[in-house]
Amino acid sequence: MENNRSYRKISEKADIQAAMALFNSCADNGEVLYKRFDTETAFERFFLHREDGVRTISIVESQYGGFASGCLNEQGTKGYVTFVAVQPERRRQGVGRELLHTLEEQLRAMAGEKLESFEASFFNPMNFVWIVPGTDGHEHPNAPGVDVAGSGYLFLKNCGYRDFAYQNSYHLNLQGYQMTEDVARKEETLQEKGIQITYYDSEKHTGLEETLVNLNNDMWYKEIMAVAAKKDGPPLLIVDWNGKAMGFTGPLYVQENGRGYLAGVGIHSDCRGNGAGKVLFGRLCTGLRDLGAKYMTLFTGETNPARNIYEAQGFKIVRTWADMHKQAK
Ligand SMILES: CC(C)(COP(=O)(O)OP(=O)(O)OC[C@H]1O[C@@H](n2cnc3c(N)ncnc32)[C@H](O)[C@@H]1OP(=O)(O)O)[C@@H](O)C(=O)NCCC(=O)NCCS
């Protein structure tokens, strides 16, 4: 169909201002949960000039009817769709589809032959901070896919993207939080087996590194080993089985926004099935509460058994996100 619309990469100040105004109007009216950008500098740092070196593309419709942005993974094999928005009065006229198509073509041109697929997923290195609805501004630092309750979900589906996984975001209010009785009883059973949940002490405990290797997660290994090596670092909670650290959670600290930080929770494969994960996590929640944290947020895969641990503490699902992809060839 003939139309006089055209699309171009963001280049001028006016483009940035228009794109930011559209993004913020979607955030302000609740169409997206993402936190608004307060300054053009912050907007530019996120979408255009990234300190982490991620290669991004941002485009606008020439009459500022829409804005889209995406990026490539390090290898150039995946193109991520980060954001697409169209002015309300210009919707359902094909602008979104054309923006997305232009974005895909630009990502393809930047990546070259290596590009395999397009994705809207938690692997995207451009992480939006978003606000948990119905809370007093409780924030989570990344949105792991496409909000299935937003208009972008059906839009992407109708533009050829297919779901490959679902992530659930969980939230727990820590004010007045108490460990559930069931989990408290489990702690007693663990103690009878000689398993204690306690704070890590490098003078007393061995085996932390071995457990982290067993868990086979590079990010945890780096973060937890760095914290463990510090004399005055934030505390770590561990599963202490005869002096050996057979599980970890933490480091425990409260972020500026009142969120109780969480790197992860992991139990050595030799120690699973004892309920140690649930108790360890319950102790993390009480520990963060005692440090003054107001809330916790996290996400996990729809089919990940770890969800039982979170649900046992009273965490509620506040959003479901779809991870979507489309072949690029
Ligand atoms: C999602 C959005 C970008 C779509 O823009 P648009 O210009 O209306 O999209 P198009 O007209 O090109 O729609 C393409 C197809 O997507 C589907 N689609 C678009 N919006 C839809 C909706 N709200 N519900 C169901 N299907 C929808 C339709 O199949 C449509 O084709 P059709 O009109 O021929 O049936 C727009 O609704 C928007 O800006 N939403 C707010 C911001 C947002 O949530 N962005 C997603 C987060 S990244």
What does this 3D model show about the protein?
The chain is an alpha+beta fold. It has two domains: 7-126 and 138-166 and 323-327, 3-Layer(aba) Sandwich (Aminopeptidase), CATH 3.40.630; 181-293, Gcn5-related N-acetyltransferase (GNAT) (Aminopeptidase), CATH 3.40.630.30. The chain contains nine helices and 15 strands. Strands 1, 2, 3, 4, 5, 8, 9, 14 and 15 form a nine-stranded mixed β-sheet that branches. A hairpin with a 4-residue loop joins β2 and β3. The chain is elongated, with a radius of gyration of 22 Å. The mean pLDDT is 96. The structure holds coenzyme A.
Tell me the radius of gyration: 22 Å
Structural class: alpha+beta
**How far apart are the termini?**
24 Å
Main sheet overview: 9 strands, mixed
* Unreliable segments of 5+ consecutive residues: none
Task: Give me the number of helical elements.
Answer: 9
Helices and strands, in order, run as EHHEEEHEEEEHEHEHHEEEHEHE
Mean pLDDT: 96
Q: Which term fits the overall shape? A: elongated
Number of domains: 2
What fold name stands as the CATH topology of the largest domain?
Aminopeptidase
> What ligand species are in this complex?
coenzyme A
* CATH class call of the largest domain: Alpha Beta
Strand content: 25-35%
Per-chain topology:
Blueprint: E1 7-9, H1 13-28, H2 40-47, E2 56-61, E3 66-72, E4 78-86, H3 95-111, E5 117-120, E6 130-131, E7 139-140, E8 146-147, H4 151-158, E9 162-173, H5 181-192, E10 195-199, H6 208-215, H7 218-229, E11 237-241, E12 244-250, E13 264-267, H8 276-291, E14 295-301, H9 307-312, E15 316-327
Parallel strand pairs: 4-5
Antiparallel strand pairs: 1-2, 2-3, 3-4, 5-15, 6-7, 8-15, 9-14, 9-15, 10-11, 11-12, 12-13
Helix pairs in contact: 5-8, 6-7
The structure holds coenzyme A.
Coenzyme A binds at residues 26, 31-32, 83-86, 91-97, 150-152, 154-155, 158-159.
